[in-house]
Amino acid sequence: MGGLLENKICLLTGAGSGLGRSAALLAAAEGAKLALGDWDDEGGRETVRLIAESGGESVFLKTDVTKSENVKALVRNALDTYGRIDCAVNNAGVEGARNKTADYDEAEWRKVIDINLTGVFLCMKYELPEMVKAGGGAIVNVGSTASIGGVATMPAYVASKHAILGLTRTTAMEYGEHNIRANIIFPGSFRTPMSERLFGVDTIEETVKPLTPMRRLATADEVAESIIWLCSDRSSWVSGSGMSVDGAKRAG
User: Fold this and answer.
1) Domains and their CATH numbers in the chain
2) pTM for this structure?
3) Which of 148, 170, 180, 187 has minimal CB crowding within 10 Å?
């Protein structure tokens, strides 16, 4: 029996580390062929190596998701290599600097919004026409528990993640008639380079555990499982949804 993504072509951004790498490895293990993008050339190529080592197939292109030409090139690389795009995981993002709203640096605000929100918009802008041509597809955007709640001293990050939720739901409404599904996940805390920067490499466990009813950090693989399911045909009637993957952190 084949994997959940057997014979599917998956485009994935932010593939060089953290959740992106875990999702890429899991997608490959479930039978997908992948077109990967990340601004980190070394990290992206390491993900390709790890996929190949496990018997999977992928290609990588260094990509700045804030630049239209880079995103178009990433989509073109997927099409030139595999002929179509069945699913897309728009995962690239940054946390940005921390400060209160009135004290937040304007240049930092624009950077975070540009990467986290405009990057998702540009990816979908160029993914969607190819999915329409192919007769359907599945998009998974990576939000955060910050998509549905506030986080003090992170106004740009929270604003960008809230906006991705609205953009995802709008896209699902617009493209449902083309058999294209769009969903968003809201991951809670798990150990990645980003979360270690936020909470500290040595203090993340003690900081996060009391805030999570399940009293532990997730693994990146546990979060990636939700992405794989939403990309798969098993979720064929799920679109416009936000899925919390957070150990009940936002249950209240």
Assistant:
1) 9-241 (3.40.50.720)
2) 0.93
3) 170
